[in-house]
Write a structure and sequence with these properties.
The structure is a homodimer.
Chain A lengths: L2 H8 L10 H14 L5 H8 L4 E6 L7 H15 L3 E6 L4 H13 L4 E11 L11 E7 L5 E5 L1 H14 L5 E5 L5 H16 L9 E3 L4 H12 L7 E4 L2 H13 L9 E3 L17 E2 L3 H13 L11 E2 L2 E4 L3 E2 L35
Helix pairs in contact in A: 4-10, 6-7, 8-9
The first copy, chain A, binds a DNA duplex through helix 1 and helix 3.
DNA sequence: TTGTAGGCGTTATCAT
DNA sequence: ATGATAACGCCTACAA
């Protein structure tokens, strides 16, 4: 019994078809007896394939959905016999450089470069020699990338509102200079256009993704002469700000105002009162897709999302909850009714502790 | 120029002291020229040390501080020339088993088993042959573990309030059956005892870590005949519930009620209005400590936290912000003033959307 | 002061 | 149908 024989049966190599069932059993028995496990490092050395994928991320964000990305990557990788190890650079150049060294020296088979927020990245030249995909980011050097389909996602959000009968839809978009916000603006416009509604620029505003920003912009929208009957926000957090602004003026959701968020960040959307309709950012699927691009061919289960050319877009599904209703028949009063308050704290909104 | 020579200078082996500066330079030059990188897999095969640590976690929690753990582990590991790769099992037995196989087959040098919430764990027997530390969890099989010093942390929280002059301190603890809640109860008692204040069992309640729970229990406490002038909560999220309850009855923080949270979960604490005083769970430091136990001896920088025997406790520092003030001189009205409301929604608290 | 050779645990090629 | 044997890239005694 030679090592070669063992190798055959352990990996059940097709060429091992020629083996006697007897020897095969003998090997298997020995394996069990000795609790034998192939040394994968040695195997890698020999085969020149480590079956490891490195994930370089600028920051492990404080937002939970980033974990979905990791889960998606890991599950797909494991299904294909791969391992993923993630390295966080935190935007620190020294750490980033170290990470590159490690990837090269440790014989990783492939790299995923990912960012917390969708943006353009610069891929280190040292990675030219290794398969790479960009996840939630993009570059101008012809690397493949996996991105959320923001434009159609935003369109879905608007359609949720249009379907309920709204025609004046306020839009508190994200930071103007971001890619996502640009796409979302297009999606919003697409939806209106398809519905034959004129684009009213006074209805769209640029927020900064913070609760407070949502609150502020919603205030402006709601207090305008011809206020919207529905507001969509660039993320769930800002949508919470919209809730606050509505509540402050005694407006009920969804009876008096419909709201839709973006991201489906459960902390804000599912747990809101009433539960917030939103659009889900498909982090899990994106993670899967990125790994899939790298190890396509290895069996995994379901089909990968359709990729056309260099960029694979993953759809953002609308999730309808309780924050959307038909528009109020009577227009919202132009200026908010001065509510009697029992306390001296009329100025400070009592909410917003989170 | 032989491979041995190269090996010496690349690793600057002490035995290479005998080398001519000339040859040394020649090697270095060649390294630069060829962009040579030692193959760490091959090295591992030879040295039987992979310099890799596996992190098995039950779930990558939705809570951001888990990321701090990972950062702490990674930074300490990198400083010592190690790599960490984390594998999430999500409580799935099959995944857990796979993870164990991977750890063994891939020649990881050590394992960290960690959990999202402090609890007892069962360590797979297959790990008997490999250095292991438990992080944020513990077992009864004599494994080393790194834990937050909950008891003294809770004591610190209470002391924050005592120092401000409070003597009636409500405590909305966490789930009764958890280790952390047990420790925290002791810490609360320690603080009161040291201040010579009698323990009033009507002031301590068991919540379930949700905002809503904090809101409910705070309501009970504040509406009791002899309400506390300060409330400490088992986590920041419940403390937000306390804020809500206070605001609902027109109580200002910290003028009418002092509040202290636990965790320092920024989403809830730092961003609250007013900013919440709390106690920080030292996830980053715990991550560092866990790796440190495993690779002690490798230079890293600062000194590790003191560990006595099998468990290394890492202190939870109080962080004072704006939610604590002196107790009100006049007692809070026993029953809340019936506030006039302008809306029909008197029942439903307008807050709590997050 | 430097070079040679053996072996870490695999896999792959070639004999047997 | 199976057994030797070389090689993957590195480290390390030991020899030169």
């Amino acid at each position: 019994m030679s090592s070669a024989t063992v190798s055959f049966v352990v990996n059940d190599d097709p060429k091992a078809q020629t083996l006697t069932q007897a020897t095969r059993d003998k090997v298997l028995e020995a394996v069990r007896l000795l609790d034998y496990r192939p040394n994968l490092q040695a195997r890698s050395l020999r085969t020149q394939r480590s079956h490891s994928i490195a994930v370089l991320t600028d920051e492990l964000t404080a937002v939970p959905y980033e974990n979905s990305t990791i889960r998606g990557m890991q599950e797909r990788a494991w299904a294909g016999g791969f391992m993923v190890t993630t390295m966080t650079t935190g935007g620190n150049a020294a750490l980033a450089e170290h990470a590159v060294e490690v990837v090269l020296a440790r014989q990783f088979d492939a790299v995923i470069v990912t960012t917390a927020f969708t943006r353009e990245v610069e891929v280190p030249a040292a990675f030219d020699s290794i398969p790479l995909v960009l996840l939630n980011c993009f570059s101008r050097d012809g690397h493949r990338s996996v991105l959320p389909a923001e434009r159609s996602g935003s369109r879905s959000a608007a359609e949720l509102l249009l379907a309920a009968g709204h025609t004046r839809i306020g839009f508190i978009n994200g930071l103007r200079e971001t890619w996502a916000a640009g796409q979302r603006r297009l999606g919003y416009r697409d939806a209106l256009r398809a519905a034959g509604i004129a684009y009213d620029r006074t209805l769209v505003r640029w927020g900064d993704y913070q609760t407070d920003s949502g609150h502020r912009h919603a205030t402006v929208l709601l207090d305008s002469p011809n206020p919207p009957t529905a507001i969509m926000a660039g993320n769930d957090r800002m949508a919470v700000g919209v809730y606050y602004a509505a509540y402050q003026r005694g407006l009920r959701i969804p009876e008096d105002l419909s709201v839709v968020g973006y991201d489906d960040h459960a902390e804000f959307s599912a747990h809101a009162v009433p539960a917030m309709s939103t659009v889900r950012l498909p982090y899990y699927e994106m993670g899967r897709a990125a790994v899939d691009l790298l190890i396509a061919g290895t069996p995994a289960g379901d089909a990968p999302p359709t990729g056309h050319g260099l960029v694979t877009e993953v759809e953002c599904q609308p999730v309808a909850r309780k924050s959307i209703g038909p528009p109020r028949s009577d227009p919202i009063a132009p200026s908010p009714p001065a509510r009697p308050r029992d306390q001296a704290r009329d100025d400070a909104p009592p909410e917003n502790p989170t």
